[in-house]
Amino acid sequence: MFSVPKLNVFERIILASGSPRRKEILENKGGLSNLIISPSTYEEENKGLVDKLDVYKYITDIAVGKVKQVALLDKSKMDGVVHTKTLYIGADTIVFHKGKILEKPTDKKDALSMLKEFRKDVDHQVCSAVVLLVFNEKNSTSQDQFEIHSFHETTDVKFTSGLSDEILEHYVDTGEPMDKAGGYGIQGLGAQLIESIHGDYYNVMGFPLYRFCQELNMFIETLQCKSLFL
User: Fold this and answer.
1) What is the rounded distance in angstroms from the CA atom of residue 185 to the CA atom of residue 177?
2) I need a labelling partner for 120 at 20 to 30 A (CA). Which of 32, 41, 145, 188 fits?
3) Whether residue 50 has pLDDT greater than 70
């Protein structure tokens, strides 16, 4: 049975992302009014080093890297003291289409190319990985200092097939596609391009809220079973 996560077990919740959409979802829909934003630079620093053959492993590895980087930086700011009642959240979202991973467009030409592919009569998938992390106060070694729980979610998206080049060019000129995986935003003007979705709407925005609530409850239960500070 679904239940709202018991967020009061954490004294701090830190989002390892600068995404305004993830912040909006977690604060306005997830009830995290005291969310701390701490963007990670991991993805940009390691993009060429991560294996893209397995889509779900790829996005999970990126999300794990992001959240570990932020957690260790947070620990260093506190002179190495582990704040065990802090929850760190990492996430990564990509679009998968015809065997290719599509991330944020590099320029307007790249964005337009992505959108032209989507208007063909083939669904594309929006895939997100979310990683939950806390420090384990019982282990001090670098290998075992984290308790980590991860999951991924996929939503199928279908664009309207009759979109003209002119319409797509006008959308790209708004600038909205440039900071979004796949080159469009379902929560903005990009909604006009979409005929249907199958799955979590918020996942297409960049954060699968429903699964997050479910998985966070399971993570909290696991921590309690291990008698870890909760």
Assistant:
1) 7
2) 188
3) no
Alpha carbon separation from 115 to 107, 162, 166, 169, 187 (Å, rounded): 13, 12, 12, 9, 16
DSSP letter assigned to residue 35: P
Helix (H), strand (E) at residue 29: none
> Which residues are within 8 A (CB) of 106 and not within 5 positions of it... i.e. 6 or more apart?
none
Q: State the pLDDT at residue 51.
A: 58
For the question of residue 92 being annotated catalytic, the response is yes
Amino acid at 29: K
- Do the Cβ atoms of 105 and 114 come closer than 8 Å? yes
Condensed to tens digits (0 to 9), the pLDDT of residues 146-163 reads 999 999 999 999 998 889
Catalytic residue, from 61, 74, 92, 200: name it. Answer: 92
pLDDT exceeds cutoff 50 at 124: yes
Q: Are 119 and 45 in contact (CB under 8 A)?
A: no
Distance CA 213, CA 86 (A): 17
- pLDDT for res 75: 86
pTM of the model: 0.88
Residues in CB range of 179: below 8 A, 6 or more apart: 104
DSSP string, 113-134: HHHHHHTSS--EEEEEEEEEEE
